[in-house]
Amino acid sequence: MGRGRRILLSPMQSDFQTITTGGSSEDEFSLLEILDHVLNTGVVIHGSVVISLAGVDLVYLGLNVILTSVETALRSIQAAEDKRSLR
Amino acid sequence: MANSEITDGQALYLYGISKSSGGKPPKIGSSGIDGVHPVQTIACGDFLCWISAVDRNEFADAINRNLENLEWLALHGVRHQQVVSDISSRGVMIPARFGTIFSTEQALVKDVQGRKTALQKVFSRISDADEWGVKIFAEPRAPQKASVARSGREYLQQKAARLKRPERDDAGIQEFATELAKIASDSAATGKVSGAQPNLLWQSTFLVPRSQRKQWDAALKDFVKKWSGSRRIEVNGPWPPYSFVSDAE
Predict the structure, then answer these.
(1) What whole-number distance in Å separates Cα of residue B3 and Cα of residue B97?
(2) What is B129-248's CATH topology?
(3) Residue A25's domain spans which residues?
């Protein structure tokens, strides 16, 4: 499976299979894609716990916690960019 | 496992669960999600749990703060993907959710053994299949003559017009989704992180049996031709089946 590739499909490239195995670094997954898939669940081995480890065998991060954090971070970046472009 | 002792202040980070082949588990050369501790296995009955030691403070106590740090999340998200992908390339593994941590090995073993039946079911479903992400983008229109905004208000209006989402509810896209769903064994919603990409019309994630790859590629090509000039299709994969294992819970 390796690193996987992003494949841009274009009618000009009659055989896009060649592209899927291409080794150019531009074909690597983008960060957004990685987070999309990595954060698109996976098996939850226990309920949703976060909090303190004291007396808790396992800590699992609720997906919503993660996504809310990502949204917050992306929004603050976007806001900073908007500000800059309006200047 | 070579050295399963975790010291005070550490926890076990779980990448996923594979079936035990009885022999020696394949060696994963890369370091774990913290970039330091090696990836190791713990035998759990018929299964192998893939773990590495992590710092308890970083991954538990301070995790909320770390998650809001996009740099931290990016680095660890990418490392998580690299490790899961490395292991998956050597055999089927059910990926664990990002951020699954156990405080002791005993707790992990006990939990995994308790869900044996559910795990077996998932294994049979994800074997010989890969996850693929598919996105449709509207092709940007031919560049128009740049219009100069005469006021801040006009600038914002122009910007809003450029950013306006194109129509998503389209019969052609429905047809495309139906065609892909016929070939794939399952599909799932995706794009929680990248959903705001400009010109994105539609996206979904599919579980595609490796035996169906030719049909899958052919279907994609058909639509690439059909939509030439108006829409662009982007496919990413193969991914470990992150989005198709939640019923092992």
Answers:
(1) 24
(2) Alpha-Beta Plaits (3.30.70)
(3) 1-38
Considering the domain architecture, whether residues A28 and A52 belong to the same structural domain is answered as: no
* Cβ atoms of residues B70 and A74 within 8 Å: yes
The per-residue pLDDT for range B210-231, each reduced to its tens digit, is: 999 999 999 999 999 999 888 9
Q: Which residues in A lie closer than 8 A to residue B137 (C-beta atoms)?
A: none
- Name which of A2, A42, A53 is nearest B103 (Cβ-Cβ): A53
Q: Report residue B188 as tokens.
A: 């799932």
In total, the C-beta contacts within 8 angstroms joining chain A to chain B are 203
Candidates B189, B69, B128, B134; CA nearest to A40 is B189
Give dist(CA B169, CA B201) in Å, integer: 9
User: Phi and psi (nearest 5°) for B2?
Assistant: -60, -50
Gap between the Cα atoms of A70 and B229, Å rounded = 33
Partners of residue A73 in chain B, C-beta under 8 Å = 68-70, 73
Residue B235 CB neighbours (<10 A): 21
Residue whose entry in the numeric block shows the structure tokens 């006990």: B110
Q: Are residues A46 and A87 in the same domain?
A: yes
Q: Are B240 and B167 in contact (CB under 8 A)?
A: no
* DSSP collapsed to 3 states, B139-185: CCCCCCCCCCCCCHHHHHHHHHHHHCCCCCCCHHHHHHHHHHHHHCC
Indicate whether A47 and A23 sit together in one domain: no
Cβ of residue A79 closer than 8 Å to a chain B Cβ: no
Query: For tokens 């979904």, what's the residue?
Result: B204
A27 Cβ under 8 Å from any chain B Cβ: no
Q: Parse chain B into domains and list their residue ranges.
A: 10-126, 129-248
The residues near B239 (Cβ < 8 Å, ≥ 6 apart) are: A1, A4, A37, B85, B130, B131, B132, B133
pLDDT digits (tens, 9 = 90+) for A18-52: 333 333 333 457 777 888 888 776 665 543 333 33
